[in-house]
Amino acid sequence: MSTKEKSLNFIEQIIEDDLKNGLSPDKLRFRFPPEPNGYLHLGHASAICLNFGLGIDYKAPVNLRFDDTNPAKEEQEYVDAIKRDVEWLGFQWAEERYASDYFQQLYDWAVLLIKKGKAYVDSQSSEDMAKQKGTPTQPGTDSPYRNRSVEENLDLFERMKNGEFEEGTHILRAKIDMASTNMLMRDPIIYRILHKHHHRTGDTWCIYPMYDWAHGESDYLEQISHSFCTLEFLPHRELYDWFLDQVYDSSKTRPKQREFARRNLSHTVVSKRKLLQLVQENYVSGWDDPRMSTISGMRRRGYTPASIRNFAETIGIAKRDNLIDVSLLEFCVREDLNKVAPRVMAVIDPVKLIITNYPEGKTEWLEAENNPEEEVMTFRKVPFSKELYIERDDFLEEASSKFFRLTLGKEVRLKNAYIIKGESVVKDTDGKITEIHVTYDDDSRSGSGSEASNRKVAGTIHWVSVEHALKAEIRLYDRLFIDESPDTHKDKNFLDFVNPNSLKTVTGFVEPGLADAKEGDSFQFQRTGYFCVDKDSTSENLVFNKTVDLKDSWEEKGKKEENTINNSLKEINKYFKVNTDEERAAIENTIGENIKTINNYSLLQNSLKKNVNNNKSSLLFSNFILKYSESIKASDVDSELLQKFYTMSLKSESPFVRYEVIQNLKRDGKNFEIFKTQLSEMKSTEKNETVLHLLSEIV
Q1: Last residue of a domain, which of 494, 520, 551?
Q2: In degrees rounded to 5, what are phi and psi of residue 173?
Q3: DSSP string, 48-69
Q4: Structural domain harbouring 128
């Protein structure tokens, strides 16, 4: 292994133990085995880094093997994309292999199984087969075709191969154990009929091997020593080994399957089926849309190979599935781009700034550093003139003392240029500012060494010369989903959480030095974030994608929403202490408006769940969540929890809680019927007139 000091993860420990137990180092061989039925995503990136990283550490070959056993879903486009992604991440495979390379050998071995009485042709319908397979707690029953003769099985299997039967009429099954506690061992399918054109073998084959049959045998044929899969394949390991037992020659290396945890990423999905759905239903522009979790999408967005490799190393290898916050990935991207991305000036939401005392027609070329992180500092020239663009939110006509950008009567520095002072504004008929007029101190140029240049001012803002600015289309990408785990909520479609503001396109201006920027080039737009040149960009129409903000705005948003929850609970306590209906209405209005601003579905779910208890403040707050939230409704709450909540609220000592829960039940038609009898009975015991009046109205 590599001589660098580091602790071993459990995968590396497995390899080390095998080496200690006699496995020769030159027998080590790994593989990355994608199915070419979609584009690779971040989960695959972790697997790529694992397998190819092991190859580097142990100086062992790593094959890229395409498990192309289902021509109904596989395309050459996906093969090409996968190869491109692996190379872009910085890895090179030893051999390019395909399961289809072994179709004849797999068929011959299947024939051998039939001859040994370990496989048979089953002619049941898929529905009948599902019934006879049993359940996890009940053993299956034998297929009526399980005891066909070897001769009949051989004849049917050959005719299946020759294309004599329609799809679904026959399958080949392994004869293992219909009473096994592992459902996968109950006579699994080895071959099925598919009259589909294969992207490599054309129309040669009318039958195709199942993944479980092809996978382990392909590992064996390639002499893979360690076959690493994600945890969902743990139940498959027994079948993997059974299939190997049927063909294994003790003089050869026997592959060993071991499993590691899938790493799910927050605010996205990493299911190829769901990613394909996003593409097909036009939620995104394609597999390489910069909002997608695909490697192609991340590359187009401006993520770097180094940042993804660093992310994979940082999260490591685990034995349990867990959810990784996308902020960690964004941190890795930010950290790498900070080292390599040149700094430039760009204005995304422009407003014109005119320096009234600057000479007409004059242009200065000022020196600006390219990247302060460089070992040897380099510089570029940027043009400066009388009319500039600045960011609209860098100016306020009237501002508090905590506003450190441009305002009337105060000074700021223009980056790499002069100190200016706000003097006046020009507005259009709607009152929108169209021009900001300022004066400058001509002795304050940055780096001039003058006394004025060293004068301290509150803030520094960036700019672009109007005369020299290049117009650019700027695509402001954000997270594709507003919920951290969009595909884990019961009875909710993951598409319900698509962020409607995940893409905003604006027209901005960039400094002229970016005229020759090429696709994929990354820059830091100073004070804004990191951006890269999109593939749609041309010399006539520059297009930039926002890669990531300079700071984690979502972390700030998350903290803000958590604070909103906590502050609302404090307001609830005041609700019970005030004396008038007007005061209570004002407090409720404030809480309601705050709840409406919270989009985090999981946060609202957890808040509601946490506050289902006998405390009146907690119950009232939960009622307000259901009343005011635009992100979560009663139908989204677990029915058992919801009914517990309704019961507690109806029995609350507080008439305010009882009133609000009755209102919520009125809106929740399904549960209203369940609680209708209880509501009727309440009429005889309710002492609060307001609650009693409401009960009389609805029951």
Answers
A1: 551
A2: -120, 145
A3: HHHHHHHHHHHT--EEEEE---
A4: 106-211
d(CA 414, CA 385) in angstroms, rounded, equals 12
Q: What is the reported pLDDT for 3?
A: 42
- Owner of token pair 């948003």: 557
pLDDT at 564 over 60: yes
Is 230 annotated as belonging to a binding site?
Answer: yes
At 441-479, the pLDDT tens digits run: 999 999 888 999 899 898 999 999 999 999 999 999 999
b/e string for 523-533 if b means 16 or more Cβ within 10 A? Answer: bbbbbbbbbbb
Residues 358 and 312 in one domain: no
Judged against a pLDDT cut of 50, whether residue 154 lies above it is answered with yes
Please give the residue that has the higher pLDDT: either 557 or 337: 337
- The answer on 616 and 564 residing in a single domain is yes
> What span, in angstroms and rounded, lies between the C-alpha atoms of 410 and 422?
6
Q: Is residue 238, in this structure, part of any structural domain at all?
A: no
Residue 2 pLDDT > 70, yes or no? Answer: no
Is the same domain home to 547 and 560?
no
One-letter amino acid for residue 491 of the chain = D
CATH number at residue 371: 2.40.240.10
In which band, very low, low, confident or very high, does the pLDDT at 333 lie, cut at 50, 70 and 90?
A: very high
The verdict on residue 127 lying in a domain is: yes
pLDDT tens-digit readout, 235-259: 999 999 999 999 999 999 999 999 9
Please give the helix or strand (H or E) that residue 666 lies within, else none.
helix 655-667
Residue whose token pair is 């509150």: 458
Residue 570: per-residue pLDDT: 83
CA distances from 481 to 224, 323, 326, 643 (A): 39, 15, 11, 29
What's the confidence (pLDDT) of residue 554? Answer: 62
CA separation for the pair 278, 293 (Å, rounded): 11
| Measured CA distances, 401 to 398, 414, 420, 453 (Å) | 10, 19, 18, 23
User: Is residue 37 annotated as involved in ligand binding?
Assistant: yes
Residues 6+ apart with CB under 8 A from 403: 396
Task: Give the CATH number of the domain where residue 149 resides.
Answer: 3.90.800.10
Q: Which amino acid is at 612?
A: V
d(CA 671, CA 684): 21
User: 560 and 546 in one domain?
Assistant: no
- Pair (545, 559) in one structural domain: no
Q: How confident is the model over 45-55, as pLDDT tens digits? A: 999 999 999 99
375 lies in a domain? Answer: yes
Q: Is 272 annotated as a binding residue?
A: yes
Q: Measured between alpha carbons, how far is residue 12 from residues 51, 60, 178 in Å?
A: 11, 13, 36
Instruction: Tell me the per-residue pLDDT of 483-510, one tens digit each, with 9 for 90 and over.
Output: 888 988 877 899 999 999 999 999 999 9
Q: How many domains does the chain have?
A: 4
Global pTM reads: 0.82
Q: Are residue 352 and residue 319 in the same domain, yes or no?
A: no
44 belongs to a structural domain:
no
Q: Is the domain of 296 the same as that of 354?
A: no
Is it the case that residue 146 has pLDDT exceeding 90? yes
My answer on whether 498 and 513 are in the same domain is: yes
What pLDDT does residue 637 have? Answer: 82
- The residue out of 393, 428, 461 marking a domain boundary is 461
Radius of gyration, alpha carbons of the chain: 33
Question: Distance of alpha carbon 614 from its chain centroid, rounded?
Answer: 38
**Structure tokens given for 605:** 């779910």
Within 10 angstroms of residue 298's Cβ, the number of other Cβ atoms is: 26
Using 50, 70 and 90 to split pLDDT, how confident is the model at 650? very high
Q: Note the pLDDT of residue 281.
A: 97
Catalytic residues: 35, 262, 272
Find out whether 36 is annotated in a ligand binding site. Answer: yes
Angle value at C-alpha 116, between 114 and 118, nearest 5 degrees: 60
